[in-house]
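Hi C.,

You asked whether I'd gotten around to modeling the 287-residue construct. I have! Everything is below, sequence then structure, no commentary in between.
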Amino acid sequence: MLYLGSHVGMKAPKFFLGSIEEALSYDANACMIYTGAPQNSKRRPISQLKIAEGKALLQKAGWSMNQVIIHAPYIINLGNTVKEETADFGAEFLKEELLRVDEIGAGILVLHPGAHMKAGAEAGIQSIVKRLNDVLNQDETDVVIALETMAGKGSEVGRTFEELAEIRQGIDKKERVGFCLDTCHIHDAGYDLSDFDSVLDHFDEILGLENLKVLHINDSKNVRGAAKDRHANLGDGEIGFETLAKIVHHPRLDNIVKILETPWIDEKAPYKEEISALKEWSKSHKS
């Protein structure tokens, strides 16, 4: 089954109900939301977010809550060893976010692993492992944290599958940690998506394909290995539409939710058109 959607907003007055309405307007059958603004820690009580109304609409559309992904805010940096209070704040906020995700009824929280702030990748990894263990060992939900593959800009941790594997290896509750593969990010990190079968084999060998929980489908404005993380619309970047369509419809990735995070065009979301194009590609490439 193809589960394909995009990032959608969640704002007053409809909140989660509005998120599902937006996703359905794109002919999507999946979506990704933030529980509040991704750049800050301000959060409304769950009781105000019209969760029940949103769930009623998605159930009417034939969805389950497994088709709703939640992304953690960017302000969480568990890898900061230069200012440990920042990493500690991130861990405390992550604890609260896991409870919010559980209350909403979703099962996956995508998280950027963190940045080591020039302290070195190993220091960053150890800080991330420590904070994730502190969080997960106290958390009683079943929410899975999906660590996102990163482009490698600045001092980001998670630019290689091996770095992500090292993080998961140090986690006590390994069943609570999976991965989110972002096509723009791994392209910018140096992986060759034109030979995606080899990339997927490498992912399986290092991280385990069974641990892949979500895909972010984005083209890239940068040449491979640029380590810049600049998303492009499908077919307008260096990866190309054909390669991305093959990834979306790859048989080994069936039933994994795919989320578009491509830029808006002239202040308009491109997701309805991009989702349609991906579906049409499948129809014309059936063997």
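If it helps when you're writing up: Residues 84-104 form the longest helix (21 residues).

Thanks,
B.
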